[in-house]
Amino acid sequence: MSTDDTVATLLLNPTLCDGRGMCHDAAPDLIELDEWGYPLLPGHTLRADLTKGQLKAAEDATHACPVLALHIERRR
Ligand code: SF4
Questions:
Q1: How many structural domains compose the chain?
Q2: Ligand 1 mean position to 25 CA, how many Å?
């Protein structure tokens, strides 16, 4: 669920993700890994609303992903 302080949404495409875990290495406070090495976004769903304070970590994670499985959708 989005809140007033949401500035963007982080989206994970599980079809593209191959579990290399580089997103977690780039943003360990934002993205956990499950027991098989696949990412868990905040809330453990495929999309996570981001506050301004989480945006830099989300950008770092997105840039670290070699298969473009992460995407940031910004609010207007
Ligand atoms: S870096 Fe990309 S491919 Fe690797 S676990 Fe994260 S989202 Fe999946």
A1: 1
A2: 10
